[in-house]
Design a protein that fits this description.
Layout (H helix, E strand, L loop, with lengths): L1 H28 L14 H11 L5 H13 L14 H36 L4 H15 L2 H15 L19 H31 L2 H8 L4 H13 L1 H16 L2 H6 L5 H11 L2 H29 L11
Helix pairs in contact: 1-13, 4-5, 4-7, 4-10, 5-7, 6-7, 7-9, 8-9, 10-13, 12-13
Length: about 325
């Protein structure tokens, strides 16, 4: 266990290093620099000071070494698009909005998806099963930002039931301003509904035909007890191990929805930073979100051994 943990930790550090390096050189390969438009009308001495401040007066490799030194120290530098703001201050200020949106999408999407998966498995071959499968295919085929634009036009624009854009602030940031969160939450939960309904249905259909389920039925247990004690409990193994990845995605996967609804979260800043080639913000948010994702993958690997003791961390089954 200790050896596995150390190996995975080293792999995580190596992954972060590779992603940071790739991100830096991909941005550096784009012609021009992010300061061109900002300093176009400034005096020459101010231009020179700006280029020196952000290190664009130095060769690419020298800038790379300086950037990596800052990352090691946890200092990603000052934003180019938002002078005076650092990555740490932006993440601290904007992460709560992204986290609340992602959590609401995850809770609603997974709950509805599991319910539909149970219905589809227990009613397999019926109209209910075919309807749920059709809905799942539809939800997984259409991008979330298309749902976002459609919901925004119909329920905010035409019907005027909800605000077109905006997000709760201040004391309402976590538990208030629900009217602002309904449409963004719905737009992002459809992917979870499609994924978890299909996953649970497939898992349940596999478990239903196992010997221990047939034995439970032969003992005269009620259908409810057979389903709740034997089928569902064992069908949730892939669900439990898949949840940590969904937790990571709930924070990192709503960028376009934030853009559509002008939600002041990490996504809105990240897309703006990419468009403006704001290297400090791109590097900082990319590595922070990558770290969250990698940690969730690590937790998933650990959960495999918790929910299924037959699996060894070293690989294979006992």
């Amino acid at each position: 266990m200790v050896r596995y943990t150390i190996r995975r930790f080293v792999e995580m550090i190596l992954t972060l290093f590779i992603i940071a390096t790739a991100t830096f050189f991909l941005l550096a390969a784009v012609p021009g620099d992010p300061l061109t438009e900002k300093v176009e009308k400034l005096p020459p001495n101010i231009k020179e000071a700006m280029y020196k401040k952000y290190g664009y007066d130095k060769p690419v490799f020298e800038r790379y070494l300086k950037t990596m030194q800052g990352i090691v120290k946890g200092d990603f530098g000052e934003s180019i698009l938002y002078p005076g703001q650092t990555v740490s201050s932006i993440v601290k200020e904007k992460l709560p909005a992204s986290a609340r949106l992602g959590i609401q999408q995850l809770v609603l999407g997974v709950s509805v998806g599991l319910l539909l998966g149970i219905i589809a498995a227990m009613k397999r071959g019926t109209w209910a099963d075919y309807t749920i499968v059709t809905i799942a295919i539809l939800f997984v085929s259409i991008p979330s930002f298309v749902f976002a634009l459609t919901l925004q036009k119909v329920f905010a624009g035409n019907l005027n039931w909800f605000p077109v854009i905006g997000w709760p602030k201040g004391k309402d940031l976590w538990f208030g301003g629900w009217k602002y969160t309904v449409l963004p939450t719905l737009a992002g939960c459809f992917g979870y509904i499609a994924g978890y309904s299909r996953l649970l249905k497939t898992s349940m259909l596999d478990v239903i035909n196992q010997d221990y389920v047939l034995t439970a039925k032969s003992k005269g247990l009620s259908k409810f007890k057979v389903v709740s004690r034997h089928i569902l409990r064992n069908s949730f193994i892939p669900i439990i191990t898949n949840l940590p990845l969904s937790v990571a995605m709930c924070i990192t996967g709503s960028f376009f929805i934030e853009r559509v609804f002008s939600i002041p979260g990490l996504g809105l800043y990240y897309i703006g930073a990419v468009n403006g080639r704001d290297l400090p913000i791109i590097m900082g948010e990319t590595l922070i979100l990558t770290a969250i994702y990698i940690v969730c993958i690590f937790i998933t690997d650990i959960l495999y051994t918790v929910v299924d003791p037959r699996i060894r961390l070293s690989g294979g089954k006992k």
